Amino acid sequence: MKFKKVITTFLAAAVALNMATSTAVSAQEQAISIATMGELSTLDSALYSDVPSSDMIGQVFEGLYRVAKGTEVELGQAESVEISEDGLNYTFKLREGLKWSNGDPVTAHDFEFTYRRLVDPQSGSRASSVTVFKNAAAIREGNAPVEELGVKAVDDLTLEISLEYPAPYLPKLLTGSRFLPVSKKFFEEKGEQYGTSAENIVTNGPFKMEGWNGTNLEWNLVKNEEYWDAANVQLDKALVQVVKENATGADLFDAGQLDYTVLSDQLVSQYEGGEEFHTVPKATIGYMSFNTLRETTANKHVRRAIAQAFDKDLYASSVIQDGSQPLNGQVPVNFDIDADGKDYREESGDLLTYNIEAAQADWAKAKEELGKEKIELELLTSDVGLSKRTAEFLQAQLQENLPGLTLTIKSVPLKNRLEFQRASDFDIFYGTWAPDYQDAINFIEQYETGGGINFAKYSNEEVDKLIAQARHEFANDAVKRREALKQAEKIIVQEDAVVAPMYQAATSYLLNPAVENFEVYPFGRTINLRTVTVN
């Protein structure tokens, strides 16, 4: 039974602001309207660091592999692959006749160019998982030219990839938004403008993007007739709207303005049980991270105190209210399961938990070392509803439990929050992160020196050594490999507390029952529209 709600004055205002231009689901046109939680920062696969951008990149581009169903993968732009016995060399043959949306051919040279950009220290890419490619680490450190990367276009249709160490998860990794290709020719024409608007990209996936000028909050995904598998793409058009407040999304859904929107808070219980309501567990985590370049947050006792001074259970049950669970480690539950069925998170255990006594002991040490009785800090968040409520919850809890702390909130659009993070212009930030592939190392490698979301500028030689051992020395020894990762995680989270994990997400959402085969992923990108049909 659908939960009916009175359309609020907020909705009326939203409609007045052109929200009413969205199109109700149409089986005849195979068109839907969906919400996304935030504005786009870029459509450049090398540079994004936010979920909304990753989601859209994933709809309009396709890699060597594509997601088949759930976490399963199949060949995408590649027609075949040969793998050496030692698992270190992959030879891909691309499908003949592949085209970019402007009609140019997609070639192996585009993939070579794309992967080289990911490791080029001059590109600005924050991708840490690229170190799986041979010589990638040396290139990123400036000790080798990008031409020595273990990725080579033999000819237009043949791509050879050499790895530093065996990586059986490589197919899943290469479906990630970070590894989706860029047209070398088009990128060189656009330069710094590439990815800044719909006009400044060409795509090779199921859809093209239209109407995004780089800052606006509404755009269209339109079927790409140049896509090699276009005959099996039923959806003609998806109107995407940025809806930052879940209540607004629910109102728009009830008004027929949206066919998909995410829920949180009390809205979950209001809609639960209805045919439009769905919920799925996610590997996405919510966390705080600290700037180690600033005097106060460089102090590990400050970080440890804050990490232990807020009630995660209360936060999950009273602020998020969507099935998300408290998380006391960097790697989520039911994500990395070994051959014996053992869960990494259960083996690694709880690291820093809610503990006021321990938090206040660390706080006292911090004030002594800093020579301060009063400490002022700023918490940076995006301006979406959950982020703002999270900031208010943390402000109240931390100021109550840590005497002498004044915590101010800086709430900005997501794109600006990411800019502040990249510039190290923050004390603490709250954000979320979803893994690129299904292996515990993908969460932990983020905090090696120069790691993908290591905006904290954290560096620890022992952590780097342990991650390197997991990648190389212990690559074929599952027990030692996991032990190295557990030790690294303990240093990052429990000892140095450079990151304070808060929760493991679940996604509750509303979906028009007329929309079929709409996939919401457990990790990585949020959604897949390629398989959608409308009745």
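Second entry:
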Amino acid sequence: MHWDSMDRAPGGGLNSGRIAFIRAFPRPQWPVIRRAMLGLILAAAGRTQAGQCGTAIYFEKHRQSATAAQGALRVAAGEPANRARTLETDHFLFHYSLRGLHRVHTEPEDSTLVRTADSLFAAFKDMADPQRDSAAYARLDSAHLAHPVYIRKTAQYFEAARAYYVDRLGMLAPVSSVRSVQYQVPASLSNKFPVDIVDIGTADNLYAGETYGITYPPPQLSITFENDFLCRTKLDDNGNIVGDPIASRLAGKVIHDYSREWELGIKVTAFHEFYHAVQFTYIPRVVTYHAWYELSATGMEERNAGEVDDYLQYLPCVLNYHNQVPLNSLLQGPCTHYPMYGHSIFHQYLSKALDSAFDVRVWEQLRRNGDALQDGLETAFGKYGRTMASLYPDYVSQLFFSGNRFKMPDGLFSPDMDRWPNVSMDSIDMSGSNPHKVVTLPALTFGILKVKWGNAPATRILQAKVASGITRIHADAAGFEVEHLRETQFPLAAPHSGYGEYYLVLPNPSFTEKAAVEIKEADAVFYAFPNPVRAQTGAVLYFSQAKSMVFPSRVRIYGEDGREVVGLDFPSAEQVLTWDLMDAGKQLVKAGVYYYRLNEDPLRLLLVMR
């Protein structure tokens, strides 16, 4: 599978040669077996699991097990055995280890500290481990030996994150009542925000993959941070930590290996995880972990650590499956990670379209309304005189220029857009025999349709239902023309002079309603497509709207024996009529010959195949 292919392979079926192309989109939630099979296929193609935030994994785990997330931490079952050395800053306590798999990454400039620590551990070898660690760290502190550069950089970026979110944006400051989750630490330590630096996969195998960090929600509000950006670690025969690097990748190439470029890993993770701590200060009891938690945290990390570009690794998902993966999706669907990381580019867009403080308004409203996302976003957008219906179409029209396929306009919301994958698109050939196409779009998704003209007649009809804010773009490598169309039904004229085709960007800005766009002949007649259709769970049969059709109308399906199988209502021109191949008793019909009719029109033949 090529992420940057221009046209996705067509699917669907033919109806006596009259339908050029039919695209049936998968259901939003895949069965477990299909998801597993896709993972194997992608792995074989060299596409690896992207690194993730442990906070999302934490909530997904408890959502799947139907266990209340708060207070359910495994590490809370008993007192941690490990003792820590602690760096205290103005607002944080950074707890870390200098021994075993939790040993923090060290650099040559830490050599004096490492030699001294190793000698102390050897000198206290007859002590039990907790006492041994405590004695060694006490000696290091009394000798005023510097903390490792890894720890000092971690402290620097966490303080920078707090300064930006709390001091500059004026957001609520996280306050924790715990001193540490992963370590035993002295009770005399001040009550500042705790950051435990450990080998995350060793601390909890739930996070054994490429996990950067975890922010635990109240009542144990704290952050657990990766100690060396290695995962699946072990100690070799010489006592050295070995494992797989945590890295960001795009199109099979490594963007950053954080086990080597660890300062970049620290910076991007600090801004991401501390934003989760800020979020949980607004929403101390999270009932539904919605997409905005990760979308906004990833957007903020790009705002504050723009040179890292960690978010790039998540873009193939949202730019290739934009007609399947909603903006507010929590499901992985066809992706190998949560798509909400990739949807952080919407956060980047809003930062430019509105201002840098727009997300403060979002979280303030979420705090007031009980964490209801749609209301939180619409209320925040309303402060700027905008709505999702006005913002989302503008956003997706800019995404059309993602990658290097077309000349890029000035003023796009991201300066990185030429490095992004080319956005995927479908196509329709208007010069084909009676071209017809229906594009269905789940809520908060969009489609892009390349309209090839050839020797087609002058006009065709586009009829959109629910979708709004359609953009028509004439574009090639040399230039472009952009038209924003407000109508939901209009004739499709031939391309402008100098262009052999154009592109329709089809957004569905609704939070809840499925949208559909239909391209058909001006004098279209009523028929079903695809025909033949396969009888399988998830199959969809569409019915076209005929010219001068009267609403409401009723479609009846009959078996070969003349008995009615099911009746379907065509309520209005604003609805797309579909059939899931279930009979009136909600059983999947068998393969065979069927007939259908609109109201009292003549019967038409329908073939159902296995």
